[in-house]
Amino acid sequence: MTLHAITVLGHDRPGIIAETTDRLAGLGLNLEDSTMTLLRGHFAMTLICAGEAGDEAIESALAPLTADGSLTVTVREVPAEEAASADGTSWILSVHGGDRPGIVSAVVAVIAGVGGNITDLTTRLAGDLYLLVAEVDLPAGADASAVERDLATVAADLGVGVTLRAAETDEL
Amino acid sequence: MTTNPRVRDWTEAELDVPGELREVVRAPAPVLSTVGERVDPTAPEVVQLAADLVATMRVSPGCVGLAAPQVGVGVKVFCVDVSEHPKTREHHGTFVLCNAEVVSGSRNEKAREGCMSVPDFTGDVKRPSRIVVRGQLPGTGEEVELEAEAFEARALQHEIDHCDGLLFLDRAAGAHAVYARKTYL
């Protein structure tokens, strides 16, 4: 049993996921985690699959998807990853404001600077409005108030708004 | 909002049977995705189930509610007790309802929910923050109607959903609104 990371990128149309997953099912692969979205209208999907097929067999099974040049597929065997440690705290970071170069890099540098890890990220540009929403894990012992202050400083320099709020879960 | 004094004053002592601990089942157990049967709230096995739900809720860390399908019984019975939770405002303490339904709701709010039966995920769910619920008390079978708000309203809807065969996953606010859990109680 091996794990494979598969990406499918390119021109969107109905049926890409159906076709991709049908071909993977034909190889007996189990789709584990996957994510797909449209990025500025481009189809973008990443899958982690488990099974007995090797990279080459998966590539050939998916080759028809790329035949007309509208999609790019990559396949790479990957190791199993350990789940991240659970002793930190979870946060949701939101940034929005007028578009300009460097918003993402400046903001995420603050998170990286305290050893924080981004576990989910979306950025969108619509007209002049730039938006970033991220799920952030801060390590145990990180000073969240200090991170908020540093984010506010960076945001003020960029002329954007920033909020960092705890990702609280209601246990029901 | 006014609390219902009959429900507020209810305690599991009224059931007059000791509660026994039951094992909590986890998704993908089919019972969690099956619409629960209506029950006779005066039936001895329903009274025993009510006592068992309260007892099992009490020993589960951070648990503010437990529905019969979560202990493997596909019926419309649940207990809640949000009195110790920091997000609680007005509340009714511990109570059990049979055959409950949400009569009305308003003021939608989104929050991230976790569930003992889905231990590896959390998810954003939008629900009314003010509701009216109708149901029957176990034992006597009295029909009661109560107003609930904030955290109690969310807990009630989460449990009533369980009785209807729904998990918070069925109400996920979007394709990217379910998250791998990082911290466990």
Pick out its properties:
heterodimer, A: 172 residues, Alpha-Beta Plaits, 4-stranded antiparallel β-sheet, 4 helices, B: 185 residues
Please tell me about this protein's structure:
The complex is a heterodimer of chains A (172) and B (185). By secondary structure, chain A is of the alpha+beta class. Helix content of chain A is 28%, strand content 45%. Chain A has a 4-stranded antiparallel sheet with strand order 2-3-1-4, with helices on one face. Chain A has a 4-stranded antiparallel sheet with strand order 6-7-5-8, covered by helices on one side. The two termini of chain A are 37 Å apart. Chain B has a single domain, classed as Peptide Deformylase. The longest helix of chain B has 16 residues, at 44-59. The chains are: A alpha+beta (172), B alpha+beta (185). The interface between A and B is medium-sized, with 18 and 27 residues. Strand 9 of chain A pairs parallel with strand 3 of chain B.
